[in-house]
Amino acid sequence: MPAATTETSIDFADLPRPLAKPFYIGTQLVDPPILQAPMAGFTNYAFRQIVREFGGAGLLATEMVNARGFVWMDEHEAEHPDRLWGVAAEARPLAVQIWDNEPETLAKVGHRLATEYQVSVVDINFGCPVRQVTQRAHSGSYLLRFPELMGQIIERVVAACAPTPVTAKIRLGCTRDQINAIDVAQVVEGAGASALTVHGRTAADMFTGEADWDRISSIKPHLKRIPLIGNGDLDSAEKVVNAFKRYDVDGVMIARAALNKPWLYAQAAAAVRGEPIPPDPTLPEQKELMLHHYQLVCERFGEEKASVLMRKYACCYAQGRPGAREFRKYVATISTPQEFFDVVERYFPL
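Structure for tRNA-dihydrouridine synthase, as requested:
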């Protein structure tokens, strides 16, 4: 006769308690409630793969895709934009961010992304502050001046993408004297978007000063059904914890700070779960990670082009480390694999 088993008593008070719950964007679960921001020139397939290897991001995103350029390539039977590199086959969930100011064009591209690429979320950029997008193309944060047009765009894209959820990313307004995020948020929700992300600066601020999380949080009571995601200045797990503790947001989006710390999402996720924060990789491990990143870029673009592209990524990996300035000086000139490996071996901070 087998020995009697003894049940172990669990004290639930001793278990870690998460600071924030997973949430849904439409039918897409975001767990943990930490999102990787789309960043032009950086969040390509190689970067996303590295983030996935560490874990911690409940939703990843591509670089923003120019909808008009996508349509032109399609009509001329050209290869689709490099910003869609890897999207068709990579793991989900995955959001693709698109930008333009024409409802029909955005709807056409959104439909292709939802049906052909079967992405998890289609995000519309109403927050980019760079001149090429705002002044030249009258898109991105320029459209915050025209909430009615934003609503028309969202309605068209939502209809074209259904049932794939559509989201919007905005800033607080165009300038400090023209903060209209609450009004815009209500338009976004009324037009059928499934979530709203707000960067806590105005377009005129660019990336200067501090993100205003109080203003982000003030939007939440004006939303009836969709989640609010806050973005800006989250450069540590502790700041992510603070954001969830102090502000009325459903999720957070980590952006530039992760370019030199792609493991930040995993650290933030652990902190939000109430678990110990994993340490940073050692400098030798970070060096190997950078070489892994380089190999991923080479597989797509070939060694020659990848060596040039890797200059900016390599500079990110060295940022904030002792000797980073010396490393950046030399890596900024490399154009061949041998030059890259030589510079890494001689100058990468260790």
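The domain at 283-347 is CATH 1.10.1200.80 (Non-ribosomal Peptide Synthetase Peptidyl Carrier Protein; Chain A).
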